[in-house]
Amino acid sequence: MKLFLKYHGPAILWALFVLIICSIHLDSVDKSPMFFEGFDKLTHCGLFFTLIVLVCFGVIRQQKPRQITYTRAFVIWAASVFFGALIEVLQASVFTWRSGDWNDLFCDVLGACMGIFSVMLTVEAIGKNEKK
């Protein structure tokens, strides 16, 4: 367990942060002139992008050679999509001050796709650079 937390601690903390930030009562914050229309969707995308990068970072650091397979990347992506769907269901049923939204789930999936793509691209580029 200690070894698992060594590599995946930041990802677990980030997932808890995402759950908390998606469950708090925002009241009229989204109507503030400081935020623009669609800020919530951009936030969802960024939260899940960061979540994917942190989970992949933990997985890559945990193994030798430092790489990530397509299968493992898909499992990480699917788990994050499930987490996003769970948050939307919780917003619709438990956190009644929030509303579950399909558009938010779409932005979660989009952020997860961007995160997986960037991790796979970076790992591939580092692998090619090390072979030279």
UniProtKB/TrEMBL annotation:
InterPro entries membership: VanZ-like
Highest taxon above the source species: Bacteria
Q: Does the keyword NAD apply?
A: no
**Alphabetical UniProt keywords:** Membrane, Transmembrane, Transmembrane helix
Asked if the keyword DNA-binding belongs to this entry, the reply reads no
Q: Where does the VanZ-like domain lie?
A: 42-121
* Source species: Mucilaginibacter rubeus
Listed transmembrane segments: 7-26, 46-62, 74-97, 109-127
- Name under which the protein is recorded: VanZ family protein
Q: Entry's PANTHER family?
A: DOMAIN PROTEIN, PUTATIVE (AFU_ORTHOLOGUE AFUA_3G10980)-RELATED
Native organism taxonomy? Bacteria, Pseudomonadati, Bacteroidota, Sphingobacteriia, Sphingobacteriales
